[in-house]
Amino acid sequence: MIAFMNIAFLVALFLLNSDRIQKAIEICSECLILLNKTDQNSKDQFNTLLLQFYSAFKLLLFNAYRRISDYISAERYGRKLLVLFSESGELEREGDVSLALAEIVESQNRFTDAKQLYKKAVNIKRLAGE
């Protein structure tokens, strides 16, 4: 399972970088379905590794949807990433996603939401020492 996820991630990343974005989205979506179907014993045993795969595939999806200007889907994955990064204490990544989400929301003329996300990004960046 782990080797499969590694290969799938690399293939999806290659597809994204070679502008075959829809195929990258399909692979990531399928991998998230497989990760969700992993039995509970495996989840306990590989919990940290599975969380890394979840965040890696969701981050790739976030970036893919941003590239094709599907901001609704990008925002959905971005908000999931904020929760994952916040729970795992990954301040730098949380700050980066907050900033990217703020830009997406601002492009949709949702200025109040954008302002809150920009403030959150600044606070997180300060905490991370950036």
From TrEMBL:
<keyword id="KW-0732">Signal</keyword>
<dbReference type="InterPro" id="IPR011990">
    <property type="entry name" value="TPR-like_helical_dom_sf"/>
</dbReference>
<protein>
    <recommendedName>
        <fullName>MalT-like TPR region domain-containing protein</fullName>
    </recommendedName>
</protein>
<feature type="signal peptide">
    <location>
        <begin position="1"/>
        <end position="24"/>
    </location>
</feature>
